[in-house]
Amino acid sequence: MRRLRRDLGLTQAHMAADLEISPSYIALMERNQRPVTAETLLRLAKAYKVDFSDFTEETGTNITARLESVMRDPMFQDIDVLPLEVADVVHSFPAFAEAMLRLHTSYKEEQLALADRRQGATGGGDEVHGDPVAAVRNFLGARRNFFPVLDAASEKLSARVTEAGGLISFFQQKHQLRVRRLPPEVMTGSLRRLDWHRKELLIDDTLDGASQNFQLAQQLAYLEFYQDIQAAVQEGNFETENARRLAQRSLAAYCAAAILMPYATFAKAAETRHYDIEALARQFGASFEQTAHRLTTLQKPGQERIPFFFIRVDQAGNVSKRLNGGGFPFARHGGGCPLWTVHTVFQTPRRIVTQWLELPDGQRFFSIARTVSSGGGAFGVAKVERAVALVCEANYAERLVYSKVHPKPVVPTPIGITCRLCHRMTCTARSEPPLGRQILPDDYRRTDVPFGFSDS
Fold first, then answer.
1. How far is CA 196 from CA 200, 445, 450, in A?
2. Name one GO molecular function term (predicted).
3. Does this model's pTM top 0.85?
4. Is domain 128-260 in CATH 1.10.10.2910, yes or no?
5. Are 1-48 and 128-260 in the same CATH fold?
6. Banded pLDDT at 143 (limits 50, 70, 90)
7. How far apart are CA 176 and CA 52, in angstroms?
8. Which terminus of the chain has a lower count of CB atoms within 10 Å, N or C?
């Protein structure tokens, strides 16, 4: 009730007037001291055109799961908080639970920044102040890759685009811009170019349909939401211009995905299709990568879906994109374990490969990996092959269509965050020893693993 009222920009008095009940009763319902009756639900549906599913127990379940995850943070390891106690807090004190989640998000953001500063001081890892990519990753990760203001605005704009007959028609009607597709030799290295003088939006004609739509949507995001994007970037307090520009680009891409795959429709389709990425991509006219990327952003309070982690790597193992919608421990420095199939799917192009994973601390995950390509579109035009992986915690896997053909194994694949942070002593795929461990000499004995190291 409280979230709905805030999303609508209403006071308790205004909502009470719309529902023809007293403001005090609204306050009691928001504090969970009075039930939301069937009659109240009917009035809500009539007054604000809301879906009854917005008020199901799933909301409390998702918040409970998130708060339980927070309480598993090592800083709370000496506090024995039972799951039942967490559930009681969520249901009896929802505002406190939300405050706790916000506070922990802020804490994690500062923790990442501190870790980067320390690593930079010792010459290891990425330093946020000097690395704009790391700064933007922290910015997105601390917010679980979800920006409610931009998402809501994009969803409304998507409806207007549909009413206008599509993106091309909307550009013509709203911005008096004609969309033209031109060959690469005319575009001179540009995929998209806005020509205000001729009132034209030029698009490279070698782009496939999904890429063309994405470029159109991203340009529309710049035209419609420039101030909103700038306001969101300001929240990041970036110290370099490069970081600000990368953040702006990321948020414009976020809006483009939200325009093409509006939250409510896409989230419902994701559940209906059991997160079948290829089926969703075809339904919304998007690419496999765009769809997988969008799945990481479905964290709207009250309408949360499975929290995913997304990574994109090339054949050399370079990570070019890392999005964290689920608080995974390898979201910051991970992605380099050779036992993870995201690094081997290049052997089976375009084929989805699933895998059960287990980290050294016992956490289990389910991975979906596949190759994607960019560029090309004509003979002789360079094409880049990359691999993407979408990962969720093991307890969510049963909701995925992929787990039906890859049932839970008795022994999942043991992987590490990175070799430097992984302390598995028997891993034959190790490329370097872990930090803080003493390497054993091989004067008299050579172990069957690349590095022998002490167990203490």
1. 6, 72, 60
2. DNA-binding transcription factor activity
3. no
4. yes
5. no
6. confident
7. 40
8. C
